[in-house]
Amino acid sequence: MSPKEVVLTQDGLKKLEEELSFLKSVKRREVARRIKTAISFGDLSDNSEYEDAKNEQAFLEGRIITLEKMLRNARLIGSDEINRENVGFGSRVLIKEIETGEEMEFTIVGSAESDPFNNKISNESPVGRSIFGEPAGAVVEVKTPAGLIKYKILEIKQIIVRGFIYPMTDSGNHQGDQVLIRHKKLESLREQGIEPYGEKYVVSHSSTEIVEKFDELEGKTVRVSGRIMTRRGHGKVGFAHLQDGAGKIQIYTREDRVGKENYLVYQDLDIGDILGVTGEVFKTRTGEVTINIVSFKILAKALRPLPEKWHGLKDIDLRYRQRYVDLIVSPEVLHTFVSRSKIIQVMREFLTGQGFLEVETPVMHTVAGGANARPFITYHNTLDLNLYLRIATELHLKRLIVGGMEKVFEIGRIFRNEGISTNHNPEFTTVEIYQVNADYEDMMVLTEEMIAAAAQKVLGTQKINYQGRELDLTPPWERRSLLQLVAEITEVDFAKVPDDTAARKIAREHGLEIEGDETKGEILFAFFEEFCEKRLWGPVFIKDYPVEVSPLAKRSLHNPRFTDRFETFVAGKEIANSFTELNDPLDQRERFEQQMERRAAGDVEAHMMDEDFLTALEYGMPPTGGLGIGIDRVIMILTDSPSIRDVILFPTMRPKEQ
User: At what angle do helices 520-527 and 500-509 cross, to 10 degrees?
Assistant: First the structure.
């Protein structure tokens, strides 16, 4: 069988012929009318209607060419001719590598449809070529760089007769046709001796620099590189916009400037292609700064079309999965992540400016500690040991305090095997900070000053808007007692609740689901989470938490049932947690033992016993203030982003096929 041959059933042939007739008669007339109407609007250098119509015309003609080629090369077969015993196009094949026993399953497709990530291999690939036409049970040899590999065909599950057809998508944008056309253009470039994936291109200016320094650069030659984001043209002239890391700039191309052959290459370029261009700076009559190019070089041919510029990437799921496309077509998304980098940089500079030392601690732990959270578990082959991805950096940083480092911080990734929501991602970024001879009151000051500084430096103001509500980050922030806040909102004063039994009775009366062994402190905290958190806007520090829910915090000197701990709420989100650190090793051991009892009772998030950390405390840790801030949530607030996935470049996603 010729690799160019298209296999079609009679029904498939009829559908293609009907489609071709429709495109040639109806669609061509529609597109021609659109182009004529767009031309009547005037200036083609800034005419999006004309550009859109020309793009549609290009897709249409490409599809017509594709269909005509398919029909010329089609070979018809009837259902009675299908050999269901041998591997052919559309066969779902299960094979086994004889030496290793590894099994693989895939569908055989034409070369243009090859997609190994979705288990589709070409009949022209090494494996596909070896098994094509073979029956179940056959053993074949495949030549690879590592030598010959033998495979046995275990099963041919089904056969679907189809050829190399890229069907139109349901949206009618001919996505598959565009891919096929771009592959053909790639082949054409190479046939002309043009390398479509060029070497580095030395640039002289960014797009933004040229626009901002127009008075200085007018008439001068510049070199820029970027991705084609829009294209329009008429006859022997063309306009396009190139997008680089700084922004966009218009380019102007004339046949008599770049030469006829080069202009033909230029006309065949697509939106998404990456170019390097050289030319003089000028302004069009509409006042747009433009480069009149004298030469260009293709740096990368885009084989997939970008989403239509007027729609952007609206599929939220696709935005997170294909962040690289999201960044290309959505300038506001790129701006968010530029802001993220700047915010973290300001935090780092703020802390180092106050004498803190940045350190790095292990990501894999033998004990998951520093927070109440379910860990991810991994396995180390050489040590034959289960390890936990860290749920906090706290306990290792406090070991450094024991060792004599008096002011330390770490910005790092944390991993918690928990739910996903607009405020939660299984891996996220925190900054944890520890300072000798400080307490949680000092950490409040540090928190408000650092976040206010980030807002001022990155946004130019400490008074911002988050999701339609005003938020003033100017220090000092409000401080509220958790006990008093619960009493104010729920009218239950836990200071007057006599014991655990009475607290449980009150919890049931308020509709809280409890196990029946909770302490008064745990129920007080449950009241706060259920009835108070959602009413906080902030910025506000909620302080003095029950000792039962604060296993690493120092007891309050005023009331040993509470700890010197606060949580920070901004825009209704908890962004920080802080303690005056517990440095009594005996008290810490007792707290760990209580946590281990909770684990034994089924609480998978309760703290583990960390004997090495207790050993460190026994050497003596000075009075210390500690603070952890969720950087992703801070960035959500400062960039007005509604979801944590909007500020994490590659959020955790379920594989699409599942």
Answer: 30
